[in-house]
Write a structure and sequence with these properties.
The protein has an eight-stranded mixed beta sheet. Strands 4-3-10 form a three-stranded antiparallel beta sheet, with no helix packed on it. The protein is globular and about 45 Å long. Helix 5 crosses helix 6 (about 195-205). About 40% of the residues are buried. It contains six helices and eleven strands. The protein folds into two domains: about 5-165, PK beta-barrel domain-like (M1 Pyruvate Kinase, Domain 3, Beta Barrel), CATH 2.40.33.20; about 170-205, no CATH class. It is α+β, with helices and mostly antiparallel strands and about 220 residues long. The termini are far apart. About 25% of the residues lie in helices and about 25% in strands.
Length: about 220
């Protein structure tokens, strides 16, 4: 198996008008080392509460999924096009579990928090009507990460999975609509959950309880 690595590090290139408000989705790769703190990458921006915060400080997307989209759309998907900060190779980002931890380079430690929830700004970025819905439905959405240990990263850094929790709830599961059993498993795992993930898990788990309704939902934006 090839060693997982960081192919590119991207930060905001230009703030653009978005669907509801300005967006920092236009990210481009940068050369050299980039400092990572609890709030994200040096030189990056988060323009709304729906797209940032410490639980979503860094966004990672797999090169393998970018290549899948490239074939599906018949166009190149360069690093940063989907608004990601990190483009990886050799790491199944969509199969990452909530609470999984990745070590990048010499010491930066990142924790998987939740899947990316695409909005209309992604459709505008791609020039494809309702593309964000198609993007989400595939489960190839990437992962939003929390920074546990800050430091410096750069393209070419090795990525290792430092730890994986016992549950098996993945990014793709949350993106496409987990069931009540998965959400009970997640709640019982003891993994610290971001508030929006915890709230969703409780709602879905409650639906199969006596008096509740059965169903599933994807993580809200």
């Amino acid at each position: 198996m090839n060693q997982a690595r960081l192919d590119a590090v991207s930060v905001v290139h230009r703030v653009r008008p978005g669907y509801f408000h300005d967006t920092a989705i236009d990210k481009r790769p940068v050369a050299g080392p980039v400092q990572v703190s609890a709030t994200g990458l040096d030189g990056d921006q988060q323009l709304s509460r729906a797209h940032g915060g410490t639980d979503r400080a860094v966004y990672a997307y797999a090169n393998e999924d970018a290549q899948w989209w490239s074939a599906a759309l018949g166009r190149d998907i360069p690093p940063g096009l989907f608004g990601e900060n990190l483009r990886t190779t050799g790491l199944d980002v969509n199969a990452a579990r909530i609470g999984e931890r990745w070590r990048v380079g010499d010491g930066v430690l990142l924790e998987v928090q939740m899947p990316r929830t695409p909005c209309e700004n992604l459709s505008m970025r791609m020039g494809i009507d309702r593309f964000h819905l198609r993007f989400n439905a595939t489960g190839r959405v990437g992962a939003m990460l929390k920074v546990l240990i800050p430091g410096t990263i750069r393209a070419g850094d090795v990525i290792t999975v430092d730890s994986r929790p016992d549950h098996d709830v993945t990014m793709a599961d949350l993106a496409t609509g987990p069931n009540a059993d998965q959400m009970r498993q997640l709640l019982d795992s003891g993994v610290p959950l971001a508030r929006r993930v915890r709230d969703m898990a409780r709602r879905i788990a409650q639906r199969s309880a006596p008096g509740g309704s059965v169903g599933s939902e994807a993580i809200p934006p």
